[in-house]
Amino acid sequence: MKEILGAYSRDQKLADPHVHTNKSRDAYLAPEQIVEITVASELLHTIAITDHDKVSPSIEAFEYAQRHGYSLEVVSGSEISTLDGHLLALYIEYDIPSHQSVEQTIKEIHKQDGLAIAVHPFFKRIRSLNQQRILDVIKNDDPEIYLDGFEIFNAGVNSYPKTTAIKEAGEFYLQHKGFLGAPIGSSDNHYFTPGRGLTAYKKDLKESIKSRETAVLMLEDHESAQIRHHAINLFPKEINPLVAKLEKYRELRNKRE
Ligand SMILES: [Zn+2]
Ligand SMILES: [Zn+2]
User: Fold this and answer.
1) Pick from 222, 191, 179, 183: nearest CA to 3
2) CA dihedral over 228, 44, 177, 138, signed as positive or negative
3) Which ligand is nearest to the CA of 51?
4) Quick one: fold of 2-256?
5) pTM score
6) What is the CB neighbour count within 10 angstroms for residue 101?
7) Which ligand is the nearest neighbour of the Cα of 126?
8) Which of 99, 205, 223, 251 is surrounded by the most beta carbons within 10 Å?
9) What pLDDT was estimated at residue 29?
10) Rounded distance between C-alpha atoms, residue 134 and residue 46, angstroms
């Protein structure tokens, strides 16, 4: 594992707080398959299922893990399409309407005692919060409008070879530390490798984010390959065609860059 921000020690736990399932139009595996791959990989203590604009897949994954007696903690959540770009909501119970301002969306997340996290900030290929809108949130006087976390590593964004968004997010975070909440790393997995981006924490993920005691890590290629290996072993019929699809997609995209 490679440290992106903060130090990782063995007494910390690992979470991937931003993972999609096939309940998002742009992702492929069912909630229970993501749980099975995560359990088999023995890397994560916690995973948040965060499909676009709906909480129900995360509840499904949670119930599945409970039924099977897995110690994996499954956090409820959703990635909300605000008018200003995507915003991650963790620990919410009910759907929050899409296409509202980022401020209104944050308010509604906090009303449910959830956490609001800026994801893939500044990344122009996906609808993302820009610097101005994030500064607007920081400066807002309403006590319910603030960010609990800021994603400074997103493995999906990182797979684009020429983007500067991750570097910019890291620099911006250090510049405005104290106003952006906890540093967050995630996979933003849409395929079969949850855990490629990680948030390390102590004891409880929610409390660690609130007290900003998190570290951000990423997996080395050979570690991601191990997860992929577990995934293919478990679900060869679904995943082998996906491997081919992903390779083709990457090839096309890298040619375009
Ligand atoms: Zn997104
Ligand atoms: Zn996402």
Assistant:
1) 183
2) positive
3) 2
4) TIM Barrel (3.20.20)
5) 0.96
6) 15
7) 1
8) 205
9) 95
10) 27
